[in-house]
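thought: user wants a sequence for this fold. calling inverse folding tool.
action: design(structure=
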């Protein structure tokens, strides 16, 4: 307050000296300032008064009454009218000149500039439900869970609701980096997290997913990957094109002096940050601190708040290394509803440079656990002495609360129901029944189809797993069935990475020739709706034995031996001309196959669900090689052939221009007089759903080949164009484009047009062929679409570009896909 008249001074600035932490007084001269214990003085300043520095103690709470003295020379009140705001320009802009100097000095200021560096790293990720109301907390269902709820505090000191802490993970590591060759090796010394019941949740996959969302933030990288998207760094080479920069302050309370550089996205809908950089004025132009957030209008789903704080510390070589990194994310379906709030804090200490370690330290996988899960010394005493920062009280409670929560019967029921909804399986003691989306379906051959099935869990055995189902078609009046038994050779669940098992299975069921669906099953109810004629089916009898082995480096192989009997169903026919020129029908064909599959997916991460692994995409490619040999005269096999498939998947990132998923695949089949069921029947789609791996305007059995090469490109622009269109950008739609092309051939000895030793291709009711080999051009289809409609729909207009004169083929169509994405 004013020392002369004891009147309160409103809107005075209160700041911790040596820090960017500051607050303002309100109309009554009151303020609240949270200060790190490392700072011992605060400064109070206001125009027309002399600034005053006040010492503070290390006490948790202090009350201060501060008087300011009016300056001797004051100015009269004047009215200032701001001129019309000038258009922002990079030209002759000192802020842009400064950021260009920061960009020019990036390489010498980042960690990668050291020949050798090493440091101790501590990571902590904690999450919980946020913004819970008193009414929500006091619901009857939570009567036994009151111990879980905690008051939620925000920066102002006010509470806006309750939090429900639900997850925490800590990791302590020793990290070594080397410049030539560029290598980073992380040795995990200790790790712990709150564990859910593994029969409901894949804890390792959950951890991998959270760590993908809460990634390391390297301000010196041109593109910063965050919540599965790439954000352009404010110090990327192209940042002046996408950001507006302003010099907003000079910090003279630190040595060297710092320039506060504020930045904002030119287009608020783009995947860009806003915030402040504190740049050193010592000729090095290093980033000393960074505060990053995002615009409220950003085209980013489900993220209510994002906050990044980076602090750098100077080492003995006058360079700056990252000392602390904090990333806070608040996820929610709506702006004001209940959400999931989390924070990842990383600290770096014991930083040393110039120490060359033996080559053995840098060799092998980039991340290695050097501790044993059963090590009893890694208890709370260990963590209490090795954590560089203590856990908050609510974080300390998470470990105990999660264990207690899982003992409450009602919570078990809740998890059971959640697992049923999300995975389709219902727990029933040592078995689980499902998946429920296959219980009912229909098709032209079977008509109305009912199915019931299930599998055992590790409650019955941790080594042996059984899976079975039975189904009945009311039109063909036939029973179908499947049974498999799997024995884990590494004493782990067969769904746990790395897999190592032996499996035997028996199946009798229907199938559309050439269809192998990813992440769904053919008797899924939603796939019962198909366009066009789709009455050509198979009855398959398959006996199969397979051995699978995965390794920690994400290389795996699968060896299989199967005996396969095919019987045509519906209007599918197997026929050929005999020596007298008469049609000869075949009721079944038999083959014995030996298969070997190799797969290498470096740095692959995924979430293991009840049925499928959901990949967590990254920049690394995935390679696969499959070989299938038909063995004639072995277990009744009637044909010899050798089928080779080589392919690769890769996601390419283009910064602000989005990303593309690319698949390249080649296939070659060796052998003569091979009937079309054993050729490459190219994957078609006659449903109204957009399928990523299928040709969406190709008919079933339309194209076959014995050698081919294909390319599948899905390009997501993330709204780069639509974000620039007024009004449209408020919808937060995003552009998506795709091109699928395949070119192949069919040798004369496998083509019924040139030989009578193979089955005739299929014909329609008008006796016109509906199955073809490729001509002198590839099959191509392309699409343009919108994704992020209502935040979960993708709608494509698909056009077929050639082979348009073949009967009953669609030239274009609308396809829909459900796609949740940030």
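)
observation: tool returned 822 residues.
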């Amino acid at each position: 307050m004013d020392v002369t008249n004891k009147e309160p001074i409103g809107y005075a600035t209160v700041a911790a000296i040596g820090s960017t932490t500051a607050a303002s007084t309100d109309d009554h001269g009151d303020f609240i300032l949270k200060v790190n214990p490392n700072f011992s003085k605060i400064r109070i300043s206001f125009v027309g008064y002399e600034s005053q520095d006040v010492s503070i103690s290390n006490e948790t709470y202090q009350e201060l009454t501060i008087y300011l003295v009016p300056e001797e020379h004051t100015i009269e009140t004047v009215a200032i009218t701001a001129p019309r705001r000038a258009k922002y320009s990079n030209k002759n802009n000192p802020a842009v000149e400064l950021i260009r100097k920061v960009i020019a000095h990036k390489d010498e200021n980042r960690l990668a500039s050291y020949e050798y560096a090493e440091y101790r790293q501590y990571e902590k990720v904690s999450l919980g439900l946020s913004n819970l109301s008193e009414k929500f907390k006091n619901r009857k269902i939570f009567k036994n869970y009151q111990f879980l709820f905690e008051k939620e505090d925000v920066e102002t000191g006010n509470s806006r609701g309750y939090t429900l802490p639900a997850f925490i993970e800590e990791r302590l590591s020793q990290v070594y980096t080397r410049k030539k060759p560029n290598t980073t090796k992380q040795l995990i010394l200790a790790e712990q997290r709150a564990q859910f019941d593994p029969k409901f949740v894949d804890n390792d996959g959950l951890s991998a997913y959270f760590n993908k969302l809460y990634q390391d933030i390297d301000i010196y990288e041109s593109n910063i990957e965050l919540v599965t998207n790439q954000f352009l760094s404010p110090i990327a080479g192209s940042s002046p094109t996408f950001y507006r920069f302003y010099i907003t302050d000079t910090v003279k309370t630190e040595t060297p002096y710092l320039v506060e550089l504020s930045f904002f996205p030119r287009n608020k809908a783009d995947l860009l940050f806003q915030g402040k950089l504190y740049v050193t004025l010592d000729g090095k132009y290093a980033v000393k601190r960074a505060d990053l957030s995002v615009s409220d209008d950003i085209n980013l789903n489900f993220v209510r708040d994002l906050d990044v704080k980076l602090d750098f510390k100077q080492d003995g070589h006058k360079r700056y290394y990252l000392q602390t990194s904090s990333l806070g994310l608040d996820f929610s379906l709506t702006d004001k509803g209940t959400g999931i709030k989390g924070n990842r804090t990383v600290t770096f200490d014991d930083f040393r440079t110039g120490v060359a370690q033996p080559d053995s330290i840098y060799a092998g996988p980039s991340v290695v656990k050097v501790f044993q899960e059963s090590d009893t010394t890694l208890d709370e005493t260990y963590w209490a002495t090795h954590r560089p920062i203590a856990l908050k009280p609510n974080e300390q409670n998470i470990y105990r609360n999660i264990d207690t929560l899982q003992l409450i019967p009602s919570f078990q029921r809740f998890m059971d129901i959640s697992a049923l909804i999300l995975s389709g399986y219902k727990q029933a003691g040592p078995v689980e029944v499902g998946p429920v989306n296959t219980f009912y379906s229909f098709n032209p051959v079977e008509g109305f189809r009912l199915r019931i099935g299930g599998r055992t869990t590790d409650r019955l055995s941790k080594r042996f797993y059984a899976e079975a189902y039975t189904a009945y078609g009311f039109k063909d009046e036939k029973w179908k069935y499947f049974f498999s038994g799997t024995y884990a050779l590494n004493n782990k669940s067969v769904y746990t990475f790395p897999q190592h098992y032996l499996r035997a299975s028996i199946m009798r069921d229907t199938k559309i020739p050439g269809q192998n669906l990813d992440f769904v099953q053919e008797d899924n109810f939603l796939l019962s709706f198909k366009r066009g004629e789709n009455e050509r089916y198979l009855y398959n009898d398959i006996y199969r034995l397979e051995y699978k082995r995965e390794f920690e480096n994400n290389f795996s192989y699968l060896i299989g031996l199967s005996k396969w009997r095919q019987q045509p169903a519906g209007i599918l026919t197997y026929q050929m001309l005999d020596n007298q020129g008469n049609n000869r029908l075949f009721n079944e064909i038999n083959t014995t196959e030996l298969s070997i599959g190799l797969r290498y997916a470096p740095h692959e991460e995924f979430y293991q669900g009840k049925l499928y692994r959901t990949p967590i995409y990254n920049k690394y490619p995935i390679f696969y090689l499959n070989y299938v040999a038909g063995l004639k005269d072995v277990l009744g096999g009637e044909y010899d052939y050798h089928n080779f498939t080589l392919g690769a998947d890769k996601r390419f990132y283009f910064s602000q221009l989005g990303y593309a998923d690319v698949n390249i695949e080649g296939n070659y089949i060796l052998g003569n007089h091979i009937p079309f069921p054993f050729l490459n029947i190219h994957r078609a789609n006659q449903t109204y759903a957009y399928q990523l791996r299928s040709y969406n305007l190709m008919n079933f059995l339309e194209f076959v080949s014995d050698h081919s090469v294909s390319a599948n490109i899905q390009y997501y622009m993330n709204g780069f164009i639509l974000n620039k269109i007024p009004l449209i950008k408020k919808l937060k739609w995003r552009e998506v484009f795709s091109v699928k092309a395949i070119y192949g051939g069919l040798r004369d000895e496998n083509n019924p047009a040139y030989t009578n030793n193979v089955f005739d291709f299929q014909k329609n009711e008008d006796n016109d062929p509906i199955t073809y080999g490729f001509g002198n051009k590839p099959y191509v289809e392309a699409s343009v679409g919108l994704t992020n409609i209502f935040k979960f729909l993708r709608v494509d207009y698909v056009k077929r570009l050639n082979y348009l004169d073949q009967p009953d083929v669609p030239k274009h169509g609308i396809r829909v896909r459900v796609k949740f994405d940030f």
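thought: summarizing for user.
answer: Here is the designed sequence. Residues 198 and 204 are 10 Å apart (CA to CA).
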